[in-house]
Amino acid sequence: MAKAKATHTMVKVISAAKTGYEKWFNIPRHTPRLSLILYDPRAKRHCLFTEDKKRRIAERTKQDFSRSHR
Amino acid sequence: MSLTSKEAFSKLPQKLHNFFIKFPPRPYAEYSVKPSVITDPHLNPFLPNKNPESGKWQGPKFSLRRSADLFKMAKKFGIQDLLPPLPRKFYEEKYNDKNWMRGVLSQKKRKWEREFEDKLEVRKEAIANMDDIIVAARPSYKKQLQKRQAKQKTWY
């Protein structure tokens, strides 16, 4: 029997300010790609943090805001 | 009463005296600056010279130690320029006209030291453009920035 996959994954987000500052999060699997605005103490300001590695994400159909269904 | 050149020559130390007999002083004989061939008339006794037939090199006729001895002796009398050119430098010339090593003049440094400036440049640029980077990923951040600017207090 293959090992069952855990419900959560550890994910690393890296600062876009290229300071090398990174944060880890334990998030549920298949959640969309993280893109957070957190404080970077080396840049001394809030910066964009994005994930560094690819992982499997649940497919989400893009929401249709047009009234074509009416 | 000044000496004639012949009298002065006879008063030189024995080593110098004998050397100048074998290898006449510079204005009267030429000596090559670089290592040459043993058949060359302008052979430099202080430098190694090659035997063209065998292709082998012969060591200098006067070792570095002996050549330094001769130079220092000649310098005392002020006739060091009469000797053939030596491969090494002495006294002030040694320190003033030093042959610096390539690695001393243009230091290679470590890889991280070479890349460090560029790294800081990239970081500086990223921090300067951070607002734009955030707005590109999250457009609603623009409103937040505007609110912040409106709230900003100035003393004038």
Structure description:
The complex is a heterodimer of chains A (70) and B (156). By secondary structure, chain A is mainly β. Chain A has no helices and four strands. Chain A has strands at 8-15, 22-28, 35-40, 45-51. In chain A, β3 and β4 form a beta hairpin. Chain A is flat. The N and C termini of chain A lie far apart (50 Å). Chain B is an all-alpha fold and 156 residues long. Chain B contains eight helices and two strands. In chain B, strands 1-2 form a two-stranded antiparallel sheet. Chains A and B meet through β4 of A and α6 and α7 of B.
How would you sum up this structure in a few lines?
Chain A is an all-beta fold and 70 residues long.
SSE topology sketch:
The complex is a heterodimer of chains A (70) and B (156).
Chain A: E1 8-15, E2 22-28, E3 35-40, E4 45-51
Chain B: H1 5-10, H2 14-22, E1 49-50, E2 57-58, H3 64-77, H4 91-96, H5 102-105, H6 111-128, H7 130-137, H8 141-151
Antiparallel strand pairs in B: 1-2
State the separation between the terminal residues of chain B, measured CA to CA: 94 Å
Whole-number average pLDDT of chain A? Answer: 92
Cα(first) to Cα(last) distance of chain A is: 50 Å
> Spans of chain B of 5+ residues with little confidence (pLDDT < 50)?
none
Q: Any key phrases for this structure?
A:
A: 70 residues, 0% helix, flat, B: 156 residues, mainly alpha, two-stranded antiparallel ribbon, 2 strands
